[in-house]
Amino acid sequence: MLSGLNHLTLAVTDLERSVRFYHERLHLKLDATWDTGAYLSLPGLWLCLSLDPLRESMPAADYTHYAFTVEAADFTALVAQLRAAGVQEWRDNRSEGASFYFLDPDGHKLEAHVGDLASRLEACRNKPYAGMKFYP
């Protein structure tokens, strides 16, 4: 039986650049590095960066992305800091809660989001998506 998400591994083309981005820009804790990888973390997240020359630095066309929680009080400053650093945005926010959608140096789609599953479900109960059903 699954009990949670264990870790997330992202293929990167320039390990040092990606470590700087996730550690210095997004403030993930740097736990370990080696020649072809790094471990970083946030409470409840173990992120592995893995050097992979096959990774293409173009964002995928689909909606797959990785969302990080940001407190409402920190959201505006984080967005300003990322924009000042020239981080590329890939989408406008279209859902409940403040969100900023941006790319990492390898084109992985990321999101900084204010809110959680409970706030999303509450918003959806007030304005459900087409065909939406709720379960106990």
TrEMBL record:
Protein origin, superkingdom: Bacteria
Keyword presence, Transferase: yes
Occurrences of domain VOC (ranges): 4-115
Gene Ontology MF annotations: transferase activity
Annotated InterPro entries: Glyas_Bleomycin-R_OHBP_Dase, Glyas_Fos-R_dOase_dom, GlyoxalaseI/FosfomycinResist, VOC_core
PANTHER family xref list: GLYOXALASE DOMAIN-CONTAINING PROTEIN 5 (PTHR21366:SF14), GLYOXALASE FAMILY PROTEIN (PTHR21366)
Protein name in UniProt: Glutathione transferase
Gene designation: fos
